Amino acid sequence: MAEQHDDGSAAASKHPHAAGDAFAHDTGDAITAQAVTINRPVGEVYAFFRDFTNLPTFMENVVTVDLLDDTRSHWAVKAPGGGTVEWNARLTAQEANSLLEWTSEDGADVPNSGRITFRDAGARGTVVTATIVYDPPGGIVGKVIAKMFQREPAIQARRDLRRFKQLMETGEIATPAMNRRQFEEMGL
């Protein structure tokens, strides 16, 4: 029988390594770990995520991800106050249908690294766990400001994984606002 895992913070998991302790540095960096179970086969979930150009479709603060080569990409992400932050990321490890690890390259506006794991959950689909380590600009003050603007990575990781789940399971992301087509169908 497959292990049961609840969706939510991997940092609160009963499993000792769920939060990605390999990324916990003694540098004062912030770490966040979140998990979600997606009712789709692991190969399908991994393939969609591995095409990094798909990520802006469900990561609401990611403006663009441009592929530079097979292992490098350039990211532009919305920042608190309306600006953007950018960095180049390099894959440091990848295992098909199982693991993606990355680190930002020197000169990143927000130095970061992380790991996404994909685990077959049998009839339940795929457990996706995201662990991100980042150096918040402005230290603790910057982190507080990012939280106020809902741009703090721990908040975003949870939201983005929920949006990823919706997209993979239903083909769309539910929003509280009516979209243009719905207004047109109502004659408004």
Features:
Alpha-D-Glucose-1,6-Bisphosphate, Chain A, domain 4; globular; alpha+beta; 4 helices; disordered N terminus; single chain; 188 residues; 32% strand; Polyketide_cyclase/dehydratase; eight-stranded antiparallel sheet
Task: Characterize this entry briefly.
The chain is of the alpha+beta class. It has helices spanning 42-50, 139-148, 153-170, 180-185; strands at 8-9, 30-38, 62-67, 72-78, 84-95, 99-104, 112-120, 126-134.
Strand order across the largest sheet: 1-2-8-7-6-5-4-3
What is Rg?
17 Å
DSSP strand count: 8
CATH architectural group: 2-Layer Sandwich
What helical percentage do the residues reach? 10-25%
| Overall number of domains | 1
Describe the structure in your own words.
This protein has one domain: START domain (Alpha-D-Glucose-1,6-Bisphosphate, Chain A, domain 4). The chain has an 8-stranded antiparallel beta sheet, covered by helices on one side. A hairpin with a 3-residue loop joins strand 5 and strand 6 (99-104). It is globular, with a radius of gyration of 17 Å. The chain contains 4 helices and 8 strands; from the N terminus they run E-E-H-E-E-E-E-E-E-H-H-H. The protein is of the alpha+beta class and 188 residues long. The chain starts with 7 loop residues before the first strand and ends with a helix. The chain has helices spanning 42-50, 139-148, 153-170, 180-185; strands spanning 8-9, 30-38, 62-67, 72-78, 84-95, 99-104, 112-120, 126-134.
